[in-house]
Amino acid sequence: MTPGADVRSIDGLIDWRVAVQNFRKEGEDVLGMIALEIQRAHDYMDDQLTFWKKESRKLEEEVIIAKAELARREMPDFSGRIPDCSVQEEALREAKQRHEFALDQIDTIRKLIVKVPREIRESYESVARRFGNFLEMELTQAISELSKQIMALEAYFALQAETVAPPRTSSELNKE
């Protein structure tokens, strides 16, 4: 004969079931929040790509304007002398640097738009899917099984309480 489960507190089992249910709910909430954060990251990268494309066009116009100003400045004046163009050359150099920076940002973001989803697929999605399945299937089944065991123990204790005779009072003993 196998020994009993030695359950000393059904309330303890109920508390454990509540804790497991809370863990399941929190786990599902966390998976949902992570999915939202991943979506926000994708949206952010898309927004950044749009921003830097617009910025690149604007900076390209600045380069064109700086080139035109330099070309105008390089024209000889009425005396045939070419004026100092160092300010315009510096402005053109800075405009080109800003435009190159914007183009670099576009390249970086395009690479990230490809790389980040791949990294998420490779390192997160399979783990998250397994955890989600655990929460949805295995933990739900465990909670159900624990609930059945609690109900069975409650029924057993109720049955046991009915079969045990109540203690006799002193007046009942005196009548005998």
Features:
85% helix, 176 residues, 3 helices, mainly alpha
Present the secondary structure layout.
Layout: H1 10-74, H2 86-163, H3 170-175
Helix pairs in contact: 1-2
Protein described:
The protein is mainly alpha-helical and 176 residues long. It has 3 helices and no strands. It has one domain (11-149). The protein has helices spanning 10-74, 86-163, 170-175. Helix 1 runs antiparallel to helix 2 (86-163). The chain is rod-shaped. The two termini are 41 Å apart. The model has no long low-confidence stretch (mean pLDDT 88).
Secondary structure tally, helices: 3
Percent helix, as a range, is over 70%
Strand pairing plus helix content: what structural class? mainly alpha
Strand content: under 5%
Secondary structure: number of strands: 0
Main beta sheet: strand number and arrangement? none
Helix and strand sequence = HHH
Report low-confidence residues grouped into runs of 5 or more.
none
Number of domains: 1
Average pLDDT: 88
**Over all CA atoms, what is the radius of gyration?**
38 Å
Shape: rod-shaped
- End-to-end gap: 41 Å
